[in-house]
Amino acid sequence: MSKKISISPKSIPFLLVHVLALGIFFFPFSWSTVALILALYYVRMFFLTAGYHRYFAHRSYKMGRVMQFLMAVGGTSCAQKGPLWWAGHHRIHHRYSDQPQDVHSPKDGFWWSHVGWILSSDYERTPVERIKDFARYPELRWLDRYHLVPPTVLAVILWLALGWRGLFIFFASTVLLWHGTFLINSMAHLFGRRRYATTDTSRNSMILALLTLGEGWHNNHHYYQVSTRQGFYWWEIDITYYVLKLMSLLGLVRELRSPSPEIRARNQIKDGHHDVGMLGLPANVPSSSRHPRGAEV
Known about the structure:
Blueprint: H1 12-21, H2 31-57, H3 65-76, H4 83-95, H5 110-119, H6 132-135, H7 138-145, H8 149-162, H9 164-186, H10 206-211, H11 218-223, H12 239-249, H13 261-265
Helix pairs in contact: 1-9, 2-3, 2-4, 2-9, 3-7, 5-9, 8-9
């Protein structure tokens, strides 16, 4: 049954940015504008996937406190609230994935999972109880409280550097970034292939992986959540992991996790690409094998 989308007054700026993003079409077309929009999209997407998701939500690798703060600032520039809010709600999603307590299951309606839950006033509070490990850092608590500072600073820099065109480039790239991220909450639970037996509707999609720097390998991720690497095989492109691997060689991050061959071989669904996630698991999948040990944060 779909949940009713009720718009919180605090979501009005979110809707307004969508309108302002259309202003980019009032400027003459140029490839430099397209390139800058894409650059702002993918650079900030990296901070979401590597920082907010794989580090703060899942602790799939380690880094020092200064690097941790810089990663958090980069993620906050995406205008998707603070690192504690984002990671805390994401942990709830994994704890109750596609169950009634899930904050954004497509079983509650496509638009609810894609954007409705963000517009709702039900999830404005940061679930500190879910993110105590990072909430102990005062700089992260400050950033979570004043999460509008980094995106505002970025917008002002673009405006000072490029004039009004730069400001509308910020709006356009931010809206694209929002919906690129939201596709994982919605489409990655509806379309694609399932390799592993999990109790949720997560699916793998090469298209979504390319749009989100590797997050599209969503069934892999729900199967083994503690892995830094979400593209388990060489043909599963995972750009976030490649960049983190390079950063580890430079000493910026450490202890990146990948699934062992034994873990990758476990719990696979025979002809899993024919399984439709929203219709449930095949009847012959034992419940004891649905979550590998260590999968939960």
